Fold TRIC cation channel family protein.
Amino acid sequence: MPSASTALVSLDLLGTLAFAINGAMTAVRTARLDIVGIVTLGMMTALGGGFIRDILLDDLPPATFLDGRYLAVAALGGLIAFVLGQRLEKLATPINVLDAAGLSLFAVTGTLKGLEWGLGATQAIILGGVTAVGGGTLRDVMVRQVPAVLHSGLYAVPALIAAGLTAAFDAGGLPLLPWTVVAAAVCFAVRLLGVRYDLHAPRPRDMKSRD
Amino acid sequence: MPSASTALVSLDLLGTLAFAINGAMTAVRTARLDIVGIVTLGMMTALGGGFIRDILLDDLPPATFLDGRYLAVAALGGLIAFVLGQRLEKLATPINVLDAAGLSLFAVTGTLKGLEWGLGATQAIILGGVTAVGGGTLRDVMVRQVPAVLHSGLYAVPALIAAGLTAAFDAGGLPLLPWTVVAAAVCFAVRLLGVRYDLHAPRPRDMKSRD
Amino acid sequence: MPSASTALVSLDLLGTLAFAINGAMTAVRTARLDIVGIVTLGMMTALGGGFIRDILLDDLPPATFLDGRYLAVAALGGLIAFVLGQRLEKLATPINVLDAAGLSLFAVTGTLKGLEWGLGATQAIILGGVTAVGGGTLRDVMVRQVPAVLHSGLYAVPALIAAGLTAAFDAGGLPLLPWTVVAAAVCFAVRLLGVRYDLHAPRPRDMKSRD
């Protein structure tokens, strides 16, 4: 049976891979980038959230920068997308699924790292949310889209749900496994339902003038 | 009479509130964001400048991230804008006034924090300017506008004036109160005059070719 | 004969100047910014890569922020571009040449700083690349262009070549001078050939659907 720490690293590497493929596929789909641009955007998407997390925690240089496994997995994800991108005609569905996977896993691991470093529950939940949406936000800014965190049907919400569940399970002394997986699965499901049914949190009522 | 430190925190929280409402109103006005997007943009606008300041100072984790009051005030500002945004038909004027208020207060508090941490006057003034324009720059990048600091009639200039006055008052040994308020008020007035009369610093002369 | 350290600082200041003029010229060319916007964009371009490098290395506050020479050179570059910008009708060529110069110099100095701080070769090479492309990426995001690092004919590639050569020369125990200059010159030549002949790394093959 894997130790808690090994499980955490595995989830984190899985999120890194999902985001790297996702970011690189976005590069293939949005603009005719060359292989360097594709791998670069994949790595930024995969590593960006963790870098922001580690800056906020003052864990510098970022753990995912010093640990060669993260760099290798992020680069690998970019290369996979480069190869697959030539085959797949429609990338929208895998892009969304991988994004939801990265979002779920990073929300959990970001929150746990915050708690480990002694943050309060509120701060740890925010940190989990930032870790989850950070890489995708960087990706969207780089390809000049309004970041998904601002407008997309339930993007920050499922991340914050997963972060909140993780903090609650931790406060309740529940074992890291399988409860972190439950938290990630809830986030994953809510996110995909949000995309599928175009769900949104409440919006301001119609304004007459929107000049 | 409040101590200097209490006064500084009060000014800082006031700037945080002003920028949070401003950023959230920008979200309401620019794009039809839902409540999560609105509050998120408000919090990024409110906390972004201070985060950049604290990264540059190596005061990590950022003070405004650990201190629950800043998080609460930033979230509150976003909620206020969400509610008000449904009522107000024209948001341009309050957006500008709140932006000028945040700019003025953060220019002062950013400079003072730099001096407290032992920076030279030049560095402290730049830090004050960065604190003041950082959150709004993040806001503008997120909603895909050219940041106000680059093009807007007198945006960085009043911030640097307030920062310079603050450093000068500090060097002269003047009491923090009321002189920081004077510095902020000058910045506030110059900024609003700049908006009102569309003032600019000198521009390069007309070029024939602008390919 | 200058010491290695003096040589390194000289190369770094030269790169700062090149990027400051480049960023400020971009501001003149892209948008009718006033002098404050021009100098600001120049300073962000010049100092951004080094700031990101120093955040990743945990060398905070950033060395280039504390050292007045960098601030002065960056501001000077912005002012030079403001003055020249009124004279030059076509800025595309000097913009590209200065960008290539900054890219080359920062790739070398960023890699060397990473090695000095004890990073492994892979991390030092990535750090050199990030230092080289960081300021230009910030510049492109600020003026709402897709960052050159993602799409431009050989932008990250020459930076990584220079970084790799620097790490190899260092591992081989070769003297810092003249070998860092060789590494920078190779990067400079590859970048300008890339621009001249619109060279790209391999791209994904044509996809039928690019919705």
Summary: Chain C has one domain: 4-196. Residues 207-211 of chain C have pLDDT under 50 and may be disordered. Chain C touches chain B through 32 residues (CB under 8 Å).
